[in-house]
Amino acid sequence: MARPKSFDPDVALHQAMNVFWRNGYVGTPMPQLTKAMGIHPGNLYTNFGNKENLFFRSLLLYQKGQRIRMVNHIKNSTDDPLTCIKSLIQNIVLQAKEDSDCKGCFTVNTFLEINHHTDRVKEKVVSYFSEMKTTFLNLILQAQKYGQISVYREADGLTAMIVNALVGIHVMLRHPQTVDQSELMLSELLENLR
């Protein structure tokens, strides 16, 4: 008869996600990972496969949480499309700013070390950014329909500007000394949405 698990796999996965989010894949040694998860190395391999598979599952968990936040923000918004775009951007940045560990965005961090990852991790990073672009593009098109953003502004270009600015802001927020620059970047981004 198999012994019952002495740990909660969901809790362990959340712990792993936080360690990978803070340190990245390359910067996370196995002893640090198993210690944070509260498990023995054998349990990691038995329950999660290997380090790469655990990283992949951690990334999926993070992205799922972010998707839920974005969808809920849009679904629960009573604002007009332009105000919804601005508040969504502000909420994304605020979430990163409130993180006392200055971890930034797990997906952006993964993108920054993309050469160390397998194809399936790379695909998840690219698809996440693609989903983000689609979300903002749909909101921009709605704002153009309501005359809040000029129809002469290229919707794809505005979308790219938003997503790229958010990536840059997340990178800057990882370093407390660049918070002021990220604030300026956010202010300029919001001002350019007309």
Structure description:
This protein is mainly alpha-helical and 194 residues long. Helix 5 packs antiparallel against helix 7, helix 7 (119-145) packs across helix 8 (155-172) and helix 8 packs antiparallel against helix 9 (179-191). The chain starts with 8 loop residues before the first helix and ends with a helix. The protein has a domain at 62-191: Tetracycline Repressor, domain 2 (Orthogonal Bundle). Helix content is 72%, strand content 0%. It is built from nine helices and no strands. The chain has helices spanning 9-23, 30-37, 41-48, 51-76, 81-97, 106-112, 119-145, 155-172, 179-191. It is elongated and about 60 Å long.
* Global shape: elongated
Q: In CATH terms, what is the fold-level topology of the domain at 62-191?
A: Tetracycline Repressor, domain 2
Element-level helix/strand string: HHHHHHHHH
- Rg over CA atoms, rounded to whole Å, is 19 Å
What's the total count of β strands? 0
Rounded to the nearest angstrom, the distance between the terminal CA atoms is 65 Å
CATH architecture of the domain at 62-191, please?
Answer: Orthogonal Bundle
Q: Percentage of helical residues? A: over 70%
Task: Determine and state the CATH class of the domain at 62-191.
Answer: Mainly Alpha
CATH homologous superfamily assignment of the domain at 62-191: Tetracycline Repressor, domain 2
How many individual helices?
A: 9
Biggest sheet: strands, sense, closure?
Answer: none
- How much of the sequence lies in strands comes to under 5%
Mean pLDDT: 90
Low-confidence stretches: none
- From the helix content, strand content and strand pairing, which structural class follows? mainly alpha
